[in-house]
Amino acid sequence: MNTTLPLPRSVEWNDTHITLLDQQALPLAVEYLELKTLEDVWKAIKTLKVRGAPAIGITAAFGLALAAQQYENESIEEFRKQLQKYRDYLASSRPTAVNLFWALDRMVASIKDVISVNEAKTTLVHEAIRIQVEDEEVCYSIGHHALSLLNKNDSIMTICNAGSIATAYYGTALAPFHLSVEKGIPLKVYACETRPVLQGSRLTAWELQQSGVDVTLITDNMAAHTIKTKKINAIIVGADRIAANGDTANKIGTYGLALLAKSFGIPFYVAAPLSTFDPTIASGDDIPIEERAAEEITHLNGKRIAPEGISVYNPAFDVTPNELITAIITEKGIITGNYKQEIQRLFAHQSSSK
Ligand code: MRU
């Protein structure tokens, strides 16, 4: 796809390795890592060198393709068993974003009819590339749908980074802002810094600045005051997993923003591809919420900022109940309310158009 966005790609396939934008080095440096083994891929996902639901899925898909190239046995049956082990290993890296499991399972399914190890190796590379290319198209489409909900000169709030670097390209919640620059539509974005790992200040502020979006950084506890004083028109966020009833898991702090949106009477939008939906889960209560290391809260830049021995609770995500969501913006269009039926319809339509 042709783009004029001045943004690096988060993941690239290079036959013998995966080139990964190191999202921990941003915004101070644009650095790349070479992932050469399955363990490198697992570690990169676990330690947030790559993060964001679609980017995690794409990286894991390339991880399986990479491990497959290094496999030496000739038996296709043995290969399938080994691939399942690789799949389970990468699936253990992070629990909440369903794109990880969606991409891994799609990779495993892609070789169900192949008859030789060589054919399987090639098929897996092609499938991973297809997942990446499709995600870019999907994000572009989400961006256009999202932009149709916004007006010239609107002020919009977002949290975390649901941007280009969290996907194949363009992003989900940030895609309309990138596209607004290309179309000359002025918008103002308020980015929450997103404690504890600061994906808002390190990544979203940087990414939007790169593409020339008018972005202002705030700390998370400034959200209510900012909505009031800066007359925020809407809040738009990404998603890590959307249950069959529309309940949505996203970065910790999202639920609070949805409650604020209701209180201020402004729309609360979730932008996400169909690969982020989990129709096997009835409601948000069934979404596993990742809890991360205490050091993410007790330390800042390696320096302790809390007393030794303090108890810490560090959930990385929260669940926004469907009734607080004004609309879910997908590549197939925008759904507003009646989420259970609308999501069923989206998936029925998707399987009939395959
Ligand atoms: O912990 P992270 O940085 O992987 O969390 C990312 C988010 O919560 C994003 O909003 C979500 O994955 C959507 S990315 C298009």
TrEMBL record:
Active site: D240 (proton donor)
Keyword vocabulary terms for this entry: Amino-acid biosynthesis, Isomerase, Methionine biosynthesis
Top-level taxon of the source organism: Bacteria
UniProt keyword Coiled coil present: no
Site-annotated residues for Transition state stabilizer: C160
Signal peptide positions (record): none
Catalysed reactions, as listed in the record: 5-(methylsulfanyl)-alpha-D-ribose 1-phosphate = 5-(methylsulfanyl)-D-ribulose 1-phosphate
Gene3D superfamilies: translation initiation factor eif-2b, domain 1, Translation initiation factor eif-2b, domain 2
Coiled coil: none
Protein EC: 5.3.1.23
InterPro entries: IF-2B-related, IF-M1Pi, IF_2B-like_C, Initiation_fac_2B_a/b/d, M1Pi_N, NagB/RpiA_transferase-like
Pfam families linked: IF-2B (PF01008)
Pathway entry: Amino-acid biosynthesis; L-methionine biosynthesis via salvage pathway; L-methionine from S-methyl-5-thio-alpha-D-ribose 1-phosphate: step 1/6
Enzyme class: isomerase
Protein family according to the UniProt entry: Belongs to the EIF-2B alpha/beta/delta subunits family. MtnA subfamily.
Assembly, per entry: Homodimer.
Biological role: Catalyzes the interconversion of methylthioribose-1-phosphate (MTR-1-P) into methylthioribulose-1-phosphate (MTRu-1-P).
Name this polypeptide is given: Methylthioribose-1-phosphate isomerase
